[in-house]
Amino acid sequence: MFELNLDISHFLDTYWQKKPTVIKKGFIDFDDPIMPDEIAGLSMEEEIESRLVYKVDDQWHAESGPFTDFEKLENEGVSLLVQAVDHWHVESQELVRPFRFLPNWRIDDLMISYSTSKGGVGPHIDNYDVFIIQGLGKRHWRVGKKNTQQPISGHGVLRHCEPFDAIINVNLEPGDILYIPSGCPHEGYAIEPSINYSVGFRAPDQNDLLSSFTDYNIDNNEPSERYIDNVMQVREKPGQIETQELEELHRVMLAKCQTPDALIPWFGKMVSEAKHELDIAEIEQPHTSQEILNLFEEGAQFTRLGGLRAIYFEQAAYYLFINGDQFDCEGFTELGHHLCDQDEVGSEVVELLQDDTGALNLFTKLVNLGYWYAI
Length: 375
Ligand code: SIN
Ligand code: CO
Fold this sequence. Notes:
By secondary structure, the chain is α+β, with helices and mostly antiparallel strands. The two termini are 15 Å apart. It folds into three domains: 8-201, Cupin (Jelly Rolls), CATH 2.60.120.650; 206-233 and 241-258, no CATH class; 289-374, Malonyl-Coenzyme A Acyl Carrier Protein, domain 2 (3-Layer(aba) Sandwich), CATH 3.40.366. An eight-stranded antiparallel beta sheet has the order 1-9-6-11-5-4-2-3, with helices on one face. The chain has ten helices and 17 strands. Helices cover 23% and strands 23% of the residues. The structure holds succinic acid (SIN) and cobalt (II) ion.
């Protein structure tokens, strides 16, 4: 259990998406949930995204995993980064929970890095908000003001930027947290072998949203209004697009998203999809509903699979969106919403399941899909 030592309201009012801050002793008596050899072990897996970053003759190098040899980690100035560790490592997944004071749909994943002394990824800018937790070791961090720098184009995955003035210049120790809003240049170098945990947040941009919405409409054969000429008169200037034509084009383009409601099915599916693979266990023998109830009665807790995304809309309370699919919870919204709001469920849901076969069937289905599992 990781307990955040933070005045959350003050943090949200003063810092969230505004300016970087250091939360000294954000986790008191921090105990690393993972060790360097386990991080290396994860980076050997095909389905897990990982990267080795180091500098040779002043040139940055970024290699993608899976890795089979770790000789480079015997040198100084090397970092091994593993993406979406919350999908694969149960103890690490616990580190995401303290940040659920922010909504599920905004939380992205947990990236973990192991750096040898002097290791870092260089000065760069991320386009997401991030909490960087210091685990093992110490690391020196510098962070600059928001939106003062641009990533240097052509620097690819590392998103490097020019040197910047630091408004934060700090050595992090185990349990300290550095919050960096998107757009703030930053760089961190290990003072000694060091583990860092980055809880990142998603914020889709306009282009992502519009292209994904259109892809969804095409994939689902949604009707697509075509431009028509409301009135056509003889044109003396055939080279010209008239104002009313441009206005009509604009209207056709926006017609599909006139109301927020129209976005719900698409956005629910899109935002509940995991960007990284999930560690879904194969269920050999599906559970019956009665077996699920028995497990609860024996005191089982069910936990949501690491990285599984489950959300609902205030405006469409009858639908749950889980891992890119829509589920109906009409008549048992209390259970449905509870599943999305909590990482674990236990005896508190037994009555809700007993009282409604729809609720019990849905939960049974979710367990049989491998989305919730008994612990
Ligand atoms: C790291 O943990 O090495 C990099 C984290 C970051 O700067 O985003
Ligand atoms: Co970064």
